[in-house]
Amino acid sequence: MSSEAHGDHGDHGDHVEAHGSFRGYLTGFLLSVVLTAIPFWLVMNNVLDNKQATAIIIMAFAVVQIVVHMVFFLHMNGRSEGGWTMLALIFTIILVVIALTGSLWVMYHLNTNMMPGHDMSQMQ
Predict the structure, then answer these.
(1) What is the Cα–Cα distance from 99 to 107, expressed in whole angstroms?
(2) What is the DSSP letter of 114?
């Protein structure tokens, strides 16, 4: 029996995924630059007085930048690989949210539990 009878195709040329174009890469690069410059500007110019709000905004920009990289540079979309890349995107977003919130939680508790005003002379 031939390979076509079993559903196997020796030539995979009929299923070609569209790789990125110059315009797509340029769009991804420009979005990445903007998504980096805005949080940098927020921090360097002390735009927001609330540090928690600034941290949340920076985390949101980080998550959006990860999605931009996955779409424009890794070519992950709902059409490629039968939708499996969309599951990879969702999984990546979940892991990033867990890592970012966990990191902020640890840093917050380290900051509040450190004793900067502790005087060593009181221990004697």
Answers:
(1) 12
(2) S
Cβ(72)–Cβ(34) below 8 Å: no
How far apart CA 70 and CA 81 sit, in angstroms, is 14
Average pLDDT of the segment spanning 84-111: 83
The letter for the amino acid at 74 is L
Contacts of 54 (CB under 8 A, 6+ apart): 42, 43, 47, 48
Residue 76: Cβ within 10 Å count: 20
Tell me the C-alpha distance between 112 and 115, whole Å.
Answer: 8
Q: How confident is the model at residue 24 (pLDDT cuts 50, 70, 90)?
A: confident
Q: Is 60 exceeded by the pLDDT of residue 54?
A: yes
pLDDT reading at 15 higher than 80 = no
> Of the candidates 74, 61, 67, which has an alpha carbon nearest to the alpha carbon of residue 34?
61
Is residue 67 within 8 Å of 30, Cβ to Cβ?
A: no
Closest CA to 16 of 78, 71, 76, 80: 80
